[in-house]
Amino acid sequence: MERILNKETVKYVNKKVMVSGWVNVRRDHGKIIFLDLRDRSGILQVVFTEESKDYKKAEIIKPEYVVSITGKVAKRPLKMVNKNIETGKVELQGQTLEILSEAETLPIEVNDKNIELQLDTLLDNRPLTIRTERNRKIFKVFETVLKAYAEKMRDLGFTEIKTPKILGAATEGGANFFTLDYFGRKAFLAQSPQFYKQIMVGAFERVFEIDPVFRAEKHFTTRHMNEYISLDAEIGFIKSFEDITNTLTEVIRYIFDEFKKRNAEEMKFFKLDVPKVPKRIPMIKLKDVKKIIGEKYNYKISDDTDIDPQGERLAGEYAKEKYNSDFIFLTHYPKNFRPFYTMPSKDGVETEGFDLLFKGLEIATGSQRIHQYKDLVESIKRHKLNPEDFSFYLQTFKYGMPPHGGWGMGLERIVYKILNLSNVKEACLFPRDVRRIIP
């Protein structure tokens, strides 16, 4: 007999079927054994009575046993209907039971919907805790964001690319790179696909990439990881950086619309109201928002930084108060706080760049890029870097590049803020930080 999924049983009332999955919960009522069986489609109640052929086998079943069960699908009595699950109007009257894999006694109760675990406990036991309903729902949202981003980028005429993650030169200079021995030579793990996606504008005009990036930064915060998934894009033939922010806004709006369509269960579980993405996200210069934060919230941001986490939170609070928006673009960062490839503004002090904040957290950063070869070489020198170290990158600018720009956006940060999680690491399957490289 071919296996069917739990959710399909509603189409087989009074028929014999076979289902397979994990035992989520076992409940005994006198001589009746109830099993909540979990598969990728949801939960199904299975009932074994003394008349069932494999009742004795059912007596030894424990949570997380993997089993295959055959039986007859029956309608539940009206008073026993479970409106909280898709299969709540039916149950499987179990007959035969095959144990595919046994499970030891669980160190953590993973089937309690309301269980709250400390972050270290959650991550130390990740192969098990990923099975909890809460975590499965987090990563269904994760999947939606991934899928929606790729869908919209293709719809907008972008070509998907995959670029190297082992580099011969640090993308932006500096010390925030992981180094490794590459057959006797020094190499770096990619901090971004920046050089390569710019090069590919010369071939396809519009490109996007979804891949991991690596940052060797010793952070101990709720918002940082040393490896994350970056949603990157680069666009050719732009007139200004606002062509980039307008496109990014369109992409963000699509992601949130798709989340609302595809993740009704997750919205209900996390008790969410989905933020509405404005047709035009508010935009304010960095120097102006720093002044507003100082005057309105009595918080001064040091001149040694562009904006700090508290500044971002207050900028998000201001956007909500002033524009009723969970999103805001902060623009025109000073040159000394932006990479060498960022296009300077006409005043020579600021840049044609931006950060996108969502609920007071930076989720994307981008800019118009310098596209003239001589200007780019001079910018590299001004940043006290050696143009010879970037010869392969510079090569593309010798042979004609259009005005262009793009962004990098953190996937986990989007999920973190959509679901109002307590830590961005909850939105990563197997997070990497200063202290964690296992599992």
Describe the structure.
With 439 residues, the chain is α+β, with helices and mostly antiparallel strands. It folds into two domains: 96 residues, Nucleic acid-binding proteins (OB fold (Dihydrolipoamide Acetyltransferase, E2P)); 300 residues, BirA Bifunctional Protein, domain 2 (2-Layer Sandwich), CATH 3.30.930.10. The strands form three sheets. An eight-stranded mixed beta sheet has the order 6-10-11-16-15-14-13-12, sandwiched between helices. Strands 1-2-3-5-4 form a five-stranded mixed β-barrel. A three-stranded antiparallel beta sheet has the order 7-9-8, with no helix packed on it. Helix 4 packs across helix 6, helix 4 packs across helix 12 and helix 8 crosses helix 9.
* Computed structural class: alpha+beta
Query: What string, H for helix and E for strand, traces the elements in order?
Result: EEEHEEHHHEEEEHEEHHEHHEEEHHEH
Per CATH, the superfamily of the largest domain is Bira Bifunctional Protein, Domain 2
How many β-strand runs? 16
Oligomer: single chain
CATH class bucket of the largest domain? Alpha Beta
Compute the CA-based radius of gyration. 26 Å
**Number of domain units:** 2
- The CATH architecture of the largest domain can be named as 2-Layer Sandwich
Strand content: 25-35%
What secondary-structure arrangement, pairings included, does this model have?
Elements: E1 16-29, E2 32-39, E3 42-48, H1 55-58, E4 66-75, E5 90-101, H2 119-124, H3 126-129, H4 133-155, E6 159-160, E7 166-167, E8 179-182, E9 185-189, H5 194-204, E10 206-214, E11 227-236, H6 241-262, H7 264-270, E12 283-285, H8 286-297, H9 309-323, E13 327-331, E14 353-358, E15 361-368, H10 373-382, H11 391-398, E16 404-410, H12 411-418
Parallel strand pairs: 3-5, 6-10, 12-13
Antiparallel strand pairs: 1-2, 1-4, 2-3, 4-5, 7-9, 8-9, 10-11, 11-16, 13-14, 14-15, 15-16
Helix pairs in contact: 4-6, 4-12, 8-9
